[in-house]
Design goal:
5 helices, alpha/beta, 167 residues
Length: 167
Amino acid sequence: METTEPATTPAPLPARCAPVVAALAAHGIAGEVRVLSEPAPTAAAAAAALGCEVGAIANSLVFLSDGAPVLVLTSGAHRVDTKALAARWGRGRLHRASPEQVRAATGQAIGGVAPTGHPAPLPTVVDTALTAYGEVWAAGGHPHTVFPTTAAELVRLTGGTLLDVTA
């Protein structure tokens, strides 16, 4: 399925997007954060709004490992196998972060967590499945915002590690 131009509005970007925009510019990433006309808090909603496959959505999931937040950028078509990923990544057990822990770690709300623009960098994994897509979409720091990128750019942007997140 080809990506179509998302339904965007001419509204200014929410303030929470400013650190994301700055990080993209600092890393030379050309994709611009766009405001969607409807929120896209799930991969399925984002794919529908963007006219792309759900697998081309880069979900930003925050977990805790040994009490510290970590970020997993997974294809919207996958569920993270936390046990397998922790073993591959060489980390302690992964536990899903609460909404409050996500906000504290990223400065962003669940449904709009970007891969960047956080108060401090988070150890990050980028799902190998995202490499199957020439263009992927990630949240821009707010549930109404997204930006186009690639798996390689996500690795460079986050200093992340490319790993399989499934069993």
